[in-house]
Structure prediction request, 577 residues.
Amino acid sequence: MAGRANLVGALAFVLVAAIAPSLPAWLISLATIAFANALVVLGLVVLWRAGLVSFGQALYYAIGAYSAALLWRLLGVTDAAVMVVGGGAAAALVAFLVGLLLARYREIFFAMLSLAVSMILYGALVKTEALGSTDGFNVAPATFLGHTPAGQARNLWLFWLTLGTCAVAALVVGGYFRSIAGALAVPVRDNELRVEFLGVSADRLIHAKLTLAGALGGVGGALAALAVGHVDPNMAYWTTSGGFVFVTILAGASSVAAAFVGSLLFELVRSYAVDILPGTWQIILGSVLLLTILFLPDGIGSVLSRRARPPEAQAR
Amino acid sequence: MTILSVRKLEKTFGRIVAARDISLDVPAGQTVGIIGANGAGKTTFVNMITGHLRPTEGTITFEGRDIAGLPSRDITRLGISRSFQVAQIFPSLSVFDNVCAAAAIARGPVSMLGRATTPLRSPQTLAEADALIDLFQLASFRSRRAATLAQGVRKLLDIAMAVAAWPRLLLLDEPTSGISIEEKFAIMDVIMQALKSRRITILFVEHDMEIVERFADRVLAFYDGTVIADGTPERTLADPNVLGLIGGARPAAAPARTADV
Prediction:
């Protein structure tokens, strides 16, 4: 099962990477942002499997973005891979520290507390003039292992980097879901008492999930900062967090691939919606979410995994 | 050899004394029944030994090691497992996946990094899960979602998961509560056979005197937070104090509140 999913994923990765040069420029830019955001969504899926919804995941997105941008601004780093790893590491560290508190909470308390922490960062960024306050600041064009592509070639390189990062993340998270700690998500959601009496701390399991989700959020934020060439406090704002939760519901928690498909679909729908109803595009997005919840309550992933699973496993 | 040794154990909640002056030794391999009316302190006693409650006073020594006040997950790792009055299972998983999760935790690494990189479904885990399914005669429910199980099967699953941790001491809190009279003996037979085959020392809380008489080597009678009688089933159940204060100790026969002892 795992082997087949990895094979399909690898084929999709090679195919998309190969046809990328012949795709229109707008689609490459859109897909880069979509896949960068998908990493944040993947982190939310990790939490959601354990029954937790974070309304503050933009915290790690912004930490990753600002860290990548500051690596350039303070240390002169322009290598994209270093900036992405740096962004992910900084966000993982913050997630670990926030997790010391957050891992003790569940349900609405968890959701609201995660939101509160992200809004503290937003407020701090808005008030920090050295980081450009509400305007944020620009990020220099990235280089790739000493290579400095220009124009559309740079977008393409960045897309490949994003795609490669997503492939690694999908592999890591897929492996995590099959691991003891990863597979204990449903037991933690179902019955923490039994988990504790089997010899595992539910809080520690959740703390690890928070850190993993934070790292993914940071990597996504760093990639987004490179793609946009700019960071600003809105990356930490609660509506950004809400957008990630939106995509998570659209994608569902059943498969890793769904996070990427869902995020791409979301960006496409949004860009068409803005085209069709420039002032009121939210109506279309809202309707899409409503229809998803009504007809695909387990998200797009449920369609993907229904095909993959033997019929016996479907009967519940 | 003594596996469990309890001295001067006490638990108070504010002014309420839930357990007081409990001292006893349990030799390895014994099956100990615990009787007493509701509120006599039986579950408090079980909760203190398994780390669910921290004793106010006293020591609990398991295999020569003081375990009083340790968190339940550490006590589980040391070799004491338990089942619950209300079966504690994972309702949205299948019976097999329930047992698998328990077996994987017991067999897998303890560090978080180890747990995050070791697959849950290793060949050893699957084999152990299969063995537990057979041991507790759960084969016909194997792929059923645990939420849909009848009470008796839930109890078996709860105990199977506790046994997955390879305990040397197992505490069962009312293993037959909520099970019909016709099924009780059959289910207890399955449980006791399984536990004996793994040489597990057993402490079980039970209201049904016939069950206690049939399965226990030794019976402790609890009243008002302490042990008022301790001996073979024949002796304890015939003890005038036990007869007077606990009666038949069936739920129907509530203790007569005659006087403070």
Q: What stands out?
A: The two ends of chain A are 20 Å apart (CA to CA). Chain A has one domain: 2-236. The first helix of chain A runs from residue 2 to 19.
